[in-house]
Amino acid sequence: MRPDTPAENVDHNAEAARLERTADRYPEDAEALLLQAAAHLELAGDRPAASSLYDRLLSSSQVLENPHLVRALKAANLWEYGHEAEARAIIEGVRVAAPRDPAPWVIVAEALESHDELEQAQETFTEGARVLLTDVAEPPYSTHPLLFGRHRVRRMLGLAHDDWDVLADTLHTSPVSLDELHDPKRVWSLGSENPAELEAEISRLRAELGTFREALSRPFPVAVLHWPTSELTELVDAYPSLSAEYPSHEEHLATIEASLRELSASGTANLGIVTGTVPSYEAFAASELMSPAEAALLPQYATTLAARGRAVEWPPQRGTACWCGSGRVYGECHGAGG
Prior knowledge:
By secondary structure, the protein is mainly alpha-helical. The chain has 16 helices and three strands. The chain has helices spanning 12-25, 30-43, 47-58, 67-80, 84-97, 102-114, 118-133, 144-157, 163-171, 178-181, 186-189, 195-217, 229-238, 249-265, 278-287, 297-307; strands at residues 222-226, 271-275, 312-313. The protein has a three-stranded mixed beta sheet, with helices on both faces. Helix 6 (102-114) runs parallel beside helix 8. The radius of gyration is 22 Å and the shape is globular.
């Protein structure tokens, strides 16, 4: 689907079929492509077919990058067409697994919320926040929906604000506060005959819509390309001219960290790292009708990987492994002295 194609003009079934064909051609990207295809099938109302794609991923012999996300999406989808017991079982499995990615937490919590399981939704949002944000000085952008969703459910339950609710208020950038946006009584003002109340509600709705549009239009991460040791050796051996870009693997890693820190210092947000492989890069070069030896192709390859959802957030969260693959904690590896 072209970015400028209006959503209402999309043939979701056709788009899902196209993405499935693309996944067959590029199996290394099958996870991201099939998740997009499943989303189109859900929008088309064909939820059983979407579940089949989730099952296809979960039964694949390939190791998934985010199996918890696939399970969470499957659970939410199953519940929508009557498979509540199975959905609940999957949701409980995701919670027990305690993934380090906020997306599965948000999806299963919102599934509970949408079916009026507010207490369970609040507990799930809170569990996710506890796993991902304990002792974290600055919550990554990807965790904001977790805090906002938790705030919303707690507001509906009439619970008093706690520290994470205050943090959610701080992170929220809309001119209308979260307390107003999440006020359970807001809906009643739409039926009011008081013009002032109606105007205020329209203003709040516009602000909320603006927030959603900002989230939906947020670009994929500004990504820097990372080559593991073996891949970089293979790349430079096959295309010696690229040795000017990559004098050594150690310098390559140092350049990545330095570039990301410079971008961060300049105010660039949503930074990430994508990891390249030689076969994937060669396939991309062929699709662009260019030689893999062209250094100008490297940033385009990185951007394409990021657009396919292959980027890993930078900097890593405290206590997690370094992005370079050394196995050491980031703060003791490339994050030392940061």
